[in-house]
Design brief:
Length: about 140
Amino acid sequence: MSGILREEGILLNQEIATKDQAIRMAGELLVKNGYVKEEYIEEMLKREEISTTYIGNDIAIPHGTENAKNEVLESGISIIQVPNGVDFNGEKARVIFGIAGKDNTHLEILSNIAILCSDMENVEKIVAAKSKDEILALLGGIE
């Protein structure tokens, strides 16, 4: 997986109270893994204010605004498994994908995640995964 998703970018079995906390956590993983600068997190929160990043099937994909592209160092994904879910404007997200795309790759990344997660069986596998390796195996095709 050409480095856009690393084991260090995955958190399992998280309890998250608010969508802002979920977005910050996803952004901090992106920062920690060297995908984005710290400022990207604020742009992720601004993006959520414009319109929700909840896409259905218990999935939210927070990402930065158009203005955030200068904060992206390289394309990357973070994943947070939230078995009990976190409220995204009345919808329950059980998997949070934080994404950052360099050179307009974010649309391709978004599309690949959306296709994988359009099958609820795949979402259930991500939510039920007991190890980071299981999640990496499931998401091996996202680039």
